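Two records follow; treat each independently.
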Amino acid sequence: MLKGDKVGLRARYDDDIPVLRTELYDDVVNGSRAEGRPWRPITPGSKDSRLVVDDKVEEVVPFSVVELESGTLVGTATLWGIDNHHRNAHIGLGLLPSARGKGYGTDVVAVLCHYGFVVRGLQRLQIETLADNAAMLRSAERNGFVREGVLRSSAWVLGEFLDEVLLGLLAEDWKPGTEG
């Protein structure tokens, strides 16, 4: 398990799947804002890639996020779009509604940076998020990510186009904390 100050990133367990499906992916608004594709329900028992991990897929590393103190599942974290030639990847995360507003997002981003830069030896990490996602923007910027641009009206979300913010962090600009 990779550990931060408040959370740990570990492998996805079978017991995590029903909780994540119910609390994250069955929520139409949250799912529509989090995905780059239209929301659709996930059938219980399906092998949907958002929930079930396929260890043969090298470009995506999904984690379950747990609170360190209690071991309680609080969300998901993913390093995705991993390009080993250019040594870059994207960061994504989703916190259960009960886990939001507690600083876990900032800690998850820190641990994913450690994983990307130290464990994987990547050069660049990138985040794309909706421009109105203040929590994700704060979490990214607290970890040293720099706003590199705005993709105007690039995301179709629940009947309207929204702007996305592109943030990047280079290995040499990263200031590691205690995660690891």
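The next record belongs to a different protein.
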Amino acid sequence: MRIAVLGTGMVAHTLGGAWKKAGHDVVLGARDVADDPDFQVLTLQEAIVTGELVVNAITGSAALEAITGLDTSAMAGKTLLDATNALTETNELLYPNSSLAERLQAALPDVRVVKSLNTAAIQVMADPTLIGPSSVFVSGDDEAAKDAVKRLLHDLGWSDEAIVDLGGVTTARGPEAHILLFFETIAVLKDPMFNIHVVR
């Protein structure tokens, strides 16, 4: 699959690198195109045109404006995997009674938005074998889009048992709010290499 990852930071490189290793064709999308030794870098507009599936790895607070500022007709019918958390400069939730995923879905009704990969350090999200058993969450209104994301999660090493499908896109509020607990836990453990595990 040709995956277009929007962003060129750590999240984009870590996820993009893991999916390349799994055999996918990955390009990055950037506001300012620059040479990258590991990926082909396109403009954001070019990336959403060429990608069969698009991944939002833009800083959460800037993502909605950056994406909706494009000609998003190029994404009609495509899956947009939102893997970021929208925070203020003081690390508070930018959308406390909503979520970035919901805002993206409302702004892009022809796009199939799925939230996932935002509840642990990106290294853990991209390679769950780095720690013990843990869980990853999926939220979205379109079942086929969620199935496509789950296949990408499998490629990262997540088993069916580890994937928790929360339901529609409104359920993304929980995983996005988890970032607050994540930061508080890091402060105690002095280490970001952990995750939560749903045991049943």
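Discussion point: Residues 22 and 173 are 30 Å apart (CA to CA). How would you locate this feature using only the token line?
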